[in-house]
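We emphasize that the prediction below concerns an isolated chain of 406 residues; any contacts that depend on oligomerization or on bound cofactors are therefore not represented. The input was used exactly as deposited, without trimming of termini.
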Amino acid sequence: MNDDKSNSRSLRRGLIWALLLGLTAALVYAVYRPRPTVVEVARVSRGSFEQVIEEDGRLRLKNRYTMAAPTPADLQRPLLRVGDTVKAGDVVATLLPAAPQMIDARTRTVLQQRVGSAEAARRAAAAQVQGAQTALDLATLEARRADQLAQDKFIAPSARDQAALARQASEEALAAARARQSVADFALAEARAALSRSQPAAGAAPAAGLWALRSPVNGQVLKLYLDSAAPVVAGQPLLDIGDTAAMEAVIDVLSSEVLQIRPGAPVALSAGSRAPPLAGRVTRIEPVAFTKVSALGIEEQRVNVIVDFSSGPDALKGLGDGFRVDARITVAAEAGVLLVPTAALVRDGSHWRVLVMVGDRAQARPVQIRQRNADVAWVHDGLQEGDTVLLYPGTTISDGQAVRLR
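Result of the prediction step, given as a token string:
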């Protein structure tokens, strides 16, 4: 009987241990069993695909006119200010031509002697003209007499011809003498001009010698190089004029990306959150690149892309030369194509793949991508409309792994 009790206790003890072991195994399995990975998903759909290049740029005038001083002068105080509107023909600057430099006593004496020499040369030239005129008169009389005598058969025809040639030579000598007199007149005028001073006489009104520079076009004053009266030299810029209603945008694009852009490509521009959106098209791509240092300190080769506005002039109100704009240049566009978020793409060697959610499992599928941008990719093969793909799968989710939605 004692043996039966002992066996019964041993059996109960074994059952208890077996139960405890089973509970422990169940607990361990519940704790360490693979759990479905929480994922985010998106659906494959059809829509319009656009590939764009986003860069910033600036506005600039199509035509800028820089007014410069045509001669050394004293600039009168400008009455215009930056932003003032001018019309073609309006006076935009007034100049008083500068007087020549003062001369010292020695130079003045030399110039006076030069004037005296020029006057003497002119008198000599005038005397030569008078002598040549007298010789011409005498030769004319001789020619007439010889012609009459030849008609009366008193002299030979050769004598008459000699008299005619002598008269012609006298005419040429008179012309040469008059030319020498003109040279002497010019030399005298030059000597007197070097001695004189181009200063208004005492009591003369200075305004009589003022020069007015007039605007060549309708526009606005963009820049004043001098805002006060000051002496200027020939060719010195005074002010810039331009029409802010006729502007274009200059977008600098990486040289590695500019090959995708073609003239005529549509461009969407924005000058700020409060400014209306602007529409334009690429009109020209400059054939030269320049070096620009990025915000990270990296040297980049960039190319200027010129954009002309298709919006009306009212859209440019409030904007001006040099304003910053953000540009979206469309380089490719297609409607009704199969789109998948780029966040679902995983690089698989030289190809792409996605993880499709089938039931509660992730299934890897290779896909063929035609083009992609920062948001979506244009799928050519491998997916169907309505498929559910995992976003941001990374390397933690593999083919066949259990997943559940967030």
